[in-house]
Design a protein that fits this description.
By secondary structure, the chain is an all-alpha fold. The chain has helices spanning about 1-10, 20-50, 60-85, 90-125, 135-160, 170, 185-190, 195-220. Helix 4 runs antiparallel to helix 5 and helix 4 runs parallel beside helix 8. Its EC number is 7.2.1.3. This is Plasma membrane ascorbate-dependent reductase CYBRD1. Its main location: membrane.
């Protein structure tokens, strides 16, 4: 749930007017909470297996689950280093953004698959009389839970892949300017009554360059789904 919330946090219309820096911290915070919960659950699983003398890491569920946790930790680390901290150059952010988005969605789908395999495995081991094949109420309940997980995962992936759910660029495009400056040079041009046409042309060119530079920054580092 925390991972899915982190994926769609940029795609909720009521967040589009919030500052992108705030949304980046919320995005990173939700992913951090999900990572902490994943580590706690992994420790609990290994402790339970060791206490019951159950072999560790023998099932496909455990293999895929551990793989998802490892790649998720790498995703979180690279997300902090490249997109949250202000040290990575813009070309690097632009190059890594598609990989960051794709890997985040892939990890989420893998987590859904791991959960489905885990609840099925638990039913097979736990239901003896009546057996899982006899479709007792517990089996019906957990199978229904599995279907809900599939629907939930599909809905999150649908939201993350629809262009109209993306944060609108016009909400993000703010021209780079000094403190006390005026946006896009419109006010500045209107106050230059005594200035020459060349000065006004230079101002428009500078404003256009600043706008393009900021749009590149926005595309590279702000529309991520970790």
């Amino acid at each position: 749930f925390c991972l899915s919330s982190a994926i769609i946090v940029y795609r909720l219309p009521w967040t589009w007017k919030c500052s992108k820096l705030l949304m980046k911290f919320i995005h990173a915070g939700l992913n951090t909470i999900a990572m902490i919960l994943a580590i706690v659950s992994m420790v609990a699983v290994f402790d339970y297996h060791n206490a019951r003398n159950i072999p560790n890491m023998y099932s496909l569920h455990s293999w895929i689950g551990l793989t998802a946790v490892i790649f998720y930790s790498l995703q979180l680390f690279l997300g902090f280093a490249v997109f949250l901290l202000p040290f990575a150059p813009v070309p690097l952010r632009a190059a890594l953004m598609p990989i960051h988005v794709y890997s985040g969605l892939t990890i989420f789908a893998t987590v859904i698959a791991t959960a489905l395999m885990g609840i099925t495995e638990k039913l097979i081991f736990s239901l003896k009389n009546p057996a899982y094949s006899a479709s007792p109420p517990e089996a019906t309940f957990v199978n229904s839970l599995g279907l809900l997980l599939v629907v939930f995962g599909a809905f999150i992936l649908w939201m993350a892949s629809r262009p109209h759910w993306k944060r609108p660029p016009e909400e993000n495009a703010k021209v780079l300017q000094p403190i006390g400056g005026t946006p896009e040079g419109t006010e500045a041009e209107s106050t230059m009554a005594g200035g020459s046409n060349a000065d006004k042309s230079d101002l428009r060119i500078n404003s256009e360059a600043a706008r393009k530079q900021n749009l590149k920054l926005d595309e590279a580092g702000q529309r991520s789904t970790m």
